[in-house]
Amino acid sequence: MIELCLVEYEMLEYLPSKLAASAIYTAQCTLKGFEEWSKTCEFHTGYTEEQLLACARKMVAFHHKAGTGKLTGVHRKYNTSKFCHAARTEPAGFLL
């Protein structure tokens, strides 16, 4: 998730800590299929679920369009067997 954000200018508005926490939140939602942000996650990151939603929604949008457009390097990288074809994972569309 973080690598998808590296080439996006609009993600510069977020602190690195918020990007990292949002990436974890987005990945959890993508893998589990529902929103999950426990009090433990909140304690260790310092961010509530509500504080992460805007950034996470942008990450999901980038994930959704990762295979199309001009900048597809990250998608190609994670679509290899070395990374277990992680790019084929469906984005957490319910966050949009």
Automatic annotation (TrEMBL):
SUPFAM superfamilies linked: Cyclin-like
Gene3D superfamilies, alphabetized: Cyclin-like
Domain Cyclin C-terminal: 1-92
Protein source organism: Camelina sativa (False flax)
Upper lineage: Eukaryota, Viridiplantae, Streptophyta, Embryophyta, Tracheophyta
Protein name in UniProt: Cyclin-B2-3-like
